[in-house]
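Lab meeting minutes (informal)
Scribe: AK
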Amino acid sequence: MKPTVYVINGPNLNLLGSREPERYGRATLADVEALCRTAGERHGFEIVFHQSNHEGELVSWIQEAGRAGATGIVLNAAAYTHTSVAILDAIAAIAVPVIEVHLTNIHAREPFRRTSYVSQVAKGVICGLGPQGYGLAIAGLAGLAGQETRT
């Protein structure tokens, strides 16, 4: 059985490719999923990929990853990054490393976006690199887990 990485996406990421393409790019969520699956294969991971506009569902998937003993979580909590103590608490309650990912550089945006509850409990943060940030997060989790890269 392959080690598993959960990739969890928050609200409005289902609109990638059509929502503010000048800010978020033209890649769709399906493109991001394909990128994650390719990166997962390269590092010997099974990828569990989710997206929801509902905070409680994100919390449930974080808890599920903990119960499953996942190798890690790549989390783009989107707007919930800046508002959700529930997501912070869910991450703090599990023994799974989380890499926080954002398509844009949240530190160069509106002041309210510069606060991240997720960062307080994440192992690392990648922002501003578009969809490639997801692949880098998976590579980072592979490094943390001591996984060899497959060519």
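Next up, CB showed the second protein from the same session:
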Amino acid sequence: MRKRLLSFLLLAGLWGSLAQEDLERKAFVFPEASKTAYVVLETTLKQPLTGFTLCMRFYTELTRGYSLFSYASRRSANEILLFAEKPNQYSFTLGDRAVIFNVPEKMNTNPFGRQICASWESATGLVELWVNGQPMVRKSLKKGHSVSTEASIILGQEQDSFGGRFEITQSFVGEILDLYMWDRVLSPDEVGWAWFNGDVPGNVINWKSLSYKSHGEVFVKPALSSFYRAVGG
């Protein structure tokens, strides 16, 4: 009986450490550079990904490189990595191989923040990157690859090993919001709808029903209302 009670308390503690909530019109705020501030996202994939789309909005004043989305597996610390190399350059990494996208400054500038979408499909290897609703030239990466279901997904830091080995020089400072992920490539119309804050709920990661655990100095705060007015939300 005592062992059962201890097991129940342990499970209750684990459940209590994981938040699941609707974060619509809210943001994760990372106020300063750190290697201890990050958010772990929980999701369960039933089968390896052979295609996906990831969309998110963010605000930052950083001019150095920083991680936007880090998905590690046991076989690869950079199973999926979306990284801002500098203000107008983004890298997309899949299974430790990367392609670089150079974004025209006028497309990457928005007084209300930026939205970025990245997609990939195994059948062709094609990678798409969209910034503020505008597409970049498609590139090719890891045709025939599949993304492992064993995932450690982290915001605010880049993983150099599964779930850890962070560097302060790669940390994110600013605000992240409206993060969604789908197990397919969205159509151009769907990406455009997501840019205008449309209702295209993610079936892998859904900002309106997000399971997460924050560590260190990360805060959940109301998103800036001016952003939603700007995009017609």
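CB comment: The helical segments are 2-16, 105-108, 188-195, 225-230.
No objections, moving on.
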